[in-house]
Design goal:
24% strand; 259 residues; binds adenosine-5'-diphosphate; binds magnesium ion; 6-stranded mixed β-sheet
Length: 259
Amino acid sequence: MSDILSVEGLCLSFGGHRVVDNAQFSVETGSITSLIGPNGAGKTTMFNLITGLLTPQAGDVRYRGETLQGLKPFQIARRGIGRTFQDPRVFPDMSVLGNVMVGLRQRGEGPLAALLQRRAVERETQDVKARAEEALDRVGLLDRAGDRAADLSFGEQRFVSIARTLIGRPPLIMMDEPTVGLDKAGLGKLTALLNDLVQRSGTTILVIEHNMDVVMSMSKKIVLLVEGKVMASDTPAEIRKHRNMVEAYLGRRHLAASH
Ligand SMILES: Nc1ncnc2c1ncn2[C@@H]1O[C@H](COP(=O)(O)OP(=O)(O)O)[C@@H](O)[C@H]1O
Ligand SMILES: [Mg+2]
């Protein structure tokens, strides 16, 4: 299997402090890779480097063999990398459907391009709407499409933000701690969705995750980041063999069901 993404010697310092330190790992096409590590290890910073929100001081990120260096976040999104953030980031007063439709506009697609051609706009809006409904269906929230986003639970808002990413049909989805704040049902729903995205749509997923049960059960590869350095990058079976090392870095509670 080929690698859809490779991180090569990435470095970033904040005020003289190395937050990402010569980091190297790859993400295999059509599988789930988990990025784990203690708080402050640099996981979110790594995501910001990959998606162009931060610029590395050294190193490269290659997507499908091509460098992403110099590209703006929206250009990287258009290449095919979708992302969800730690907080759901919904617009509370907008409808659930509207919140998902925003996902295409943020990528620079949709009606704006054809502002002067009303019919084209109407057609395009219908298409965007249909895609938003499809994305909502996928996360099990189609029946809430007309509700205000503020009326949804925190967990449901998380799924709205995931649907917003899905509408762009990105081949690679990066998720920052998607299970935080979900109850047991939400957790089951999320892992089923991730597995379904991989199996049914051939999507590749890179996920920052703390729940080691979730990580161990769904990942093809686990990347352990500590103080900005990649300490291990291996299959769950191999990572399990280094349980002591992982426990030392993450603390025991992370190897038990923590959520
Ligand atoms: N914009 C920033 N300016 C200065 N320091 C930052 C900034 N963003 C993150 N950091 C620091 O970088 C380190 C890694 O943070 P982060 O990537 O958020 O870790 P993680 O997601 O693994 O918990 C932390 O020490 C954090 O305080
Ligand atoms: Mg983080």
